[in-house]
């Protein structure tokens, strides 16, 4: 999709999540590509909270969304715009459609609608509203509503073909043959379709960038734009994130949600973003062995290179980028994330940990491994851990050189591996871990003697 130079100062895109639970990894990807597009063309990236389905709201979810965007350095230029605070706009828009003959008030009870659905199912037909209320004069319908009769507002949806161009999937033709869609519910809240179109128009959204699961809704949105006599924005639908080539991510999978990567793994944010730009994801001359900064991603982003191929959630690829992120990120960035995650603010200690891991542990990438019970937790937290058996032999160690430990093991007739295990337990409270020589390098001999003395 080419963006005209004349429009560069008018680019406005939005990320519009619903605060109904944890943010899906696909939602983060949508936010990310909207951000790239806005920054590439000098536009605005806007956060909109779509909270009109009040029955599904989860307390704290809106704040979590804002925190995630901040965590990934994708903070919006405007917003949040909250739909539940804009009900008058949707009501006015729905009434405009009634005045123009494109919508009507429907007073049918839920019992009558259930009967219509059952009858259609019995006859093997697609359930459709029979437009009983479309025949009520609009002025009479208004009086009925003002007198307290509950109603919804429906869009007249005659069967029709809709054609539009998508920036990724090209020319799209859809046959819209559905029941008259509800635009405004009886409680005054809009449905997704009305709120989506009204807000995109009101917020002057130039390009809608979202997952391809919404492609099927776009034809209906075009009908709404036409009904209002508005010009629709440009559309780019992103391919899906998949478990395998044939299997979608399940909502039951913990790694389908952003929290898994932030809280469970402690992956640095840039690792996730780098994983998302591979495989035809809009980066010119993409190099899979290069670790991109956000500024490099923006500089090399080209929406014409967005492919239709689904992105596979590959744990090996994620581990690769996690390692690269730890090696390439600045110390202040890593320090900030470690402080956020573990509540430690000892900059000298954290710097020592980071420098050691970068030099000695090339496979390190997930900050969660620094948790107190993690394989590298001993570096940040002094934990007594397991007890050492037969501590007397440790008194014989007067140098932490491996050669000296080997001599002590030989002179006392015990396997070298067994003595090294005792040393490791005494120093870091666990049998398994890095080589004792690396532990000594990190702690220093004075600290090793202090820890040993506390064990004896």
Description:
This protein has 456 residues and is of the alpha/beta class. Among the domains are: 128 residues, HUPs (Rossmann fold); 74 residues, Arc Repressor Mutant, subunit A (Orthogonal Bundle), CATH 1.10.10.350. It contains 18 helices and 14 strands. The longest helix is centred in the first third of the chain and has 16 residues. The N and C termini lie far apart (71 Å). 32% of the residues are buried. The mean pLDDT is 92.
Short description:
One of its GO terms (molecular function) is glutamate-tRNA ligase activity. This protein has 456 residues and is α/β, with parallel strands linked by helices.
Tags for this model:
456 residues; alpha/beta; Rossmann fold; Arc Repressor Mutant, subunit A; three-stranded parallel β-sheet; 14 strands; 43% helix; aminoacyl-trna synthetase; nucleotide-binding; Glu/Gln-tRNA-synth; Nondiscriminating glutamyl-tRNA synthetase EARS2, mitochondrial
- Name given to the CATH architecture of the domain at 5-83 and 192-240: 3-Layer(aba) Sandwich
Distance between the termini: 71 Å
Q: Which fold name fills CATH's third level, the topology of the domain at 5-83 and 192-240? A: Rossmann fold
Low-confidence stretches: none
Task: Report the average pLDDT across residues.
Answer: 92
Domain Glutamyl/glutaminyl-tRNA synthetase class Ib catalytic: 10-310
GO molecular function: ATP binding; glutamate-tRNA ligase activity; glutamate-tRNA(Gln) ligase activity; tRNA binding; zinc ion binding
Domain Aminoacyl-tRNA synthetase class I anticodon-binding: 397-454
Family: Belongs to the class-I aminoacyl-tRNA synthetase family. Glutamate--tRNA ligase type 1 subfamily.
